[in-house]
Amino acid sequence: MSNLTVKGKDLYLNGEPFQLISGAIHYFRIVPEYWEDRLLKLKACGFNCVETYVAWNLHEPNEGEFNFSGLADIEKFIQIAEKVGLYVIVRPSPYICAEWEFGGLPAWLLADRNMRVRSYYEPFLEKVDRYYDVLLEKMRPLLSTNGGPIIAMQVENEYGSFGNDKAYLKHLRDGMISRGIDVLLFTSDGPSDLMLKGGTVENVLATVNFGSRPEEAFGKLQEHFPDTPNIVMEYWNGWFDHWGEEHHTRDPHETAKTFFEMIEQGNSVNFYMFHGGTNFGFYNGANYDGKHLPTVTSYDYDCPISEAGDITPKFYAVREALAKLRDIGELVLPAPIPKISYGSIKMEESISLFDALENISQPIRRANPETMEELGQNYGFTLYQTFINGPHEKAPLTIKDVKDRALVFVNRQYIGLIDQWDNNSLDIEIPKEGATLEILVENMGRVNYGPELYDKKGITRGVRFHYQFLFDWTIYTLPLDNIEQLVFKKDAVKHKGLPTFYRGKFDVEEIGDTFVELPGWKKGVVFINGFNLGRYWEVGPQETLYLPGPLLKKGENELIVFELHEHENDSISLINEHKLG
């Protein structure tokens, strides 16, 4: 049995002084077959602990339905960490940020227009409590106090950046304790007065998050808690990317120098991230800074271990810095995972979204165009359809608060784009016989941080033609979780300007990692053997999608691309290098 405790400014493990040297690896961003590989590399760098968030929306995708298999098998991940000789820190707070969709909160919470998350709002707490009844029961046998590897757990995440509801924090703390969580509990916040005052709670260890100037950050922590250990729970050694921005990098030697100085002074450090992984499917989050900023599919984060599991110069720089202070032994790494080019794949079969509707969705009739959450949908796309009587001269079509990006069609002809950024309206004309208006809205990821957290998707208020609101809608929810029901046609028909599914098949003899390159394609989603790899978009910086080898199989494999726009190519390539701009 291991027990992590605090005495004054020091940490102790089993009564002996202990310095935490930890790295963040999120199980839900890595295929399970690679968990051991990534954890072995963390251990090989000289670290003694792995830290992971817990994504509520992955574990309770629909209210009352729980998932702890595949990518969600957190128990197996923790057991593997113990097997390779690592302690574990678990951060199961309802909200995790993490550049993850809605900060890990389930989208179905927003079906209630009165919902108030991250506060002492009883309808929210009832749902948290039900989730904790299931999750914490699974965590309890894995606690260090019960012979497992978990030495600490988080109560809430950067709460001082959001609110100051102490009753809420106490509810979470007391709920964890009453469910048998008797390891060290902590909070983590930015190093400012407002954040530390708002985000901490009595009898719970306070830690700080930062990427530079550790003296200032630890100074602020000590100002508020003068008899506490200096622990940085998130040392940001890299950063994440938004679509349309440059790829972020940070000098490995500068990262290692700051790390060395913190460790040399006796501080405890958790690298955020040590290995980032991938925002598979529709799980990327978004930020809001005057406008919506969706995060890319890659969560490479410029880490010591790349998105594809490769050792980077930052790994060597960090290990070298640590080796100056302690004996970490010879470097022993797992066998490298092969990267393979499978060549060009012709997407020979296709079906337009409109032709596929009856196979992958059921019509819902509503007077008003309701939000995705009100329709019982979490992620993906929603198609709104209505009929406008004619004739009407050309006039502006406006979507009130569309979230996030809408393609507009009149009589199945693409008219243009309306989004929440720069394209607010379109002029359309209605002939004498009238016309069918169709609006395909893409949810590009809910905000995961800050005051805009209540980020409902779809058409959130209404649609106006000129000054008149439109009613009587037929709506199709399109989470794209049932693409096996698509019926493809083997032809060379170009579905000009229409969102279309394309399918190609290819044979594999040797399995390895590869990268999907889509030259000439515009924007959409890629599926491999039914698994949603994530989004692509020509605006970059991400130019390829990482395809882990375990998602392939020997023999025939199926690749499906859902492309939203007219494009210039009918092939994609599987190459052996990642292009992140």
UniProtKB/TrEMBL annotation:
<dbReference type="InterPro" id="IPR048913">
    <property type="entry name" value="BetaGal_gal-bd"/>
</dbReference>
<dbReference type="InterPro" id="IPR017853">
    <property type="entry name" value="GH"/>
</dbReference>
<dbReference type="InterPro" id="IPR019801">
    <property type="entry name" value="Glyco_hydro_35_CS"/>
</dbReference>
<protein>
    <submittedName>
        <fullName>Beta-galactosidase</fullName>
    </submittedName>
</protein>
<feature type="active site" description="Proton donor">
    <location>
        <position position="158"/>
    </location>
</feature>
<feature type="domain" description="Glycoside hydrolase 35 catalytic">
    <location>
        <begin position="11"/>
        <end position="323"/>
    </location>
</feature>
<dbReference type="InterPro" id="IPR048912">
    <property type="entry name" value="BetaGal1-like_ABD1"/>
</dbReference>
<dbReference type="InterPro" id="IPR031330">
    <property type="entry name" value="Gly_Hdrlase_35_cat"/>
</dbReference>
<keyword id="KW-0732">Signal</keyword>
<keyword id="KW-0326">Glycosidase</keyword>
<comment type="similarity">
    <text>Belongs to the glycosyl hydrolase 35 family.</text>
</comment>
<dbReference type="GO" id="GO:0005975">
    <property type="term" value="P:carbohydrate metabolic process"/>
</dbReference>
<dbReference type="InterPro" id="IPR008979">
    <property type="entry name" value="Galactose-bd-like_sf"/>
</dbReference>
<dbReference type="GO" id="GO:0004565">
    <property type="term" value="F:beta-galactosidase activity"/>
</dbReference>
<dbReference type="Pfam" id="PF21317">
    <property type="entry name" value="BetaGal_ABD_1"/>
</dbReference>
<keyword id="KW-0378">Hydrolase</keyword>
<dbReference type="Pfam" id="PF21467">
    <property type="entry name" value="BetaGal_gal-bd"/>
</dbReference>
<dbReference type="InterPro" id="IPR001944">
    <property type="entry name" value="Glycoside_Hdrlase_35"/>
</dbReference>
<keyword id="KW-0325">Glycoprotein</keyword>
<dbReference type="InterPro" id="IPR026283">
    <property type="entry name" value="B-gal_1-like"/>
</dbReference>
<feature type="domain" description="Beta-galactosidase galactose-binding">
    <location>
        <begin position="499"/>
        <end position="557"/>
    </location>
</feature>
<feature type="active site" description="Nucleophile">
    <location>
        <position position="234"/>
    </location>
</feature>
<dbReference type="Pfam" id="PF01301">
    <property type="entry name" value="Glyco_hydro_35"/>
</dbReference>
<feature type="domain" description="Beta-galactosidase 1-like first all-beta">
    <location>
        <begin position="369"/>
        <end position="478"/>
    </location>
</feature>
